[in-house]
Predict the structure.
Amino acid sequence: MIRSLFLSLTITTMLTAPSFAQGGLDVPPPADGFGTQAPSSPLSNEPMSELERAGLRPPLQVQSGYTYSTEDRRVTEILGQPVYTSVEETGENIGSINEIIVTPDASIAAVVVEIGGFLGIGARNIAIEYRNLQYQVAHDGSWRWVYPTTAEQLQDAPEFVWTETLAEPGQSRETDGPVPIDETAMPDAPAVETANPNDDGSIAADQLRGATLYSTNNQVVGMISDVLVSDVGTVQDVIVDVGGFLGIGTRSVAVPYGQLRLELDANGNSFMVVDATREAIEALPEYQPQ
């Protein structure tokens, strides 16, 4: 199975909650590719807002609510889905999607597909560029994920392995760099990628699912239960369960992914922060999947 930077989709690990110091979160500089440093105080007599003092963006997008698109897909609808070699009846099931790699600019770089083996024994993971994966109508009228390839090409594809571990506060991340691919071995199909998408600060999409979301004033906003992906391969929003008690009376709202930041606490544990207050998020209209 994958040694994921944060979470695996087949062996889901919840994010560790942030440690609290006296007076609030002890937040170190943000991880590469996510978040920003707090800016210097402006040369103005106007008092700084809470967001400005924290170095965050005004939550204008958050307050605008969510606009549903019929092309949107939830990550939970993609995970575990089989991938076929074609839409024809002869199309072979090559494996299932167990990870989605998201870049810092909210684009989906790749999906990780588990192939081979029997009951998980002898199985291994390969990364396929998301742009080479197609969602098409099959011969029987159902929809399926398609990656045009052959069993022989998959046999030669290098295994996907996360090479990066979460850096300690104040330290930089280290990676082994891309793994070269022999494209001559696969002339008739898109190259199976193993360029280790996390080299550029990318994260596993399932790092978000199950994570506790915090506000700019260190309040717990809710739990992220799902991620919305557009038809062009970008992460649009996350679905956050807010309100209620022990799951009773909770409701779901959609929060733009661009308003989230991945941070580290003093112990190196990762957590998510939204550039808004808890009240602003709870006031959003309820998310209604179509």
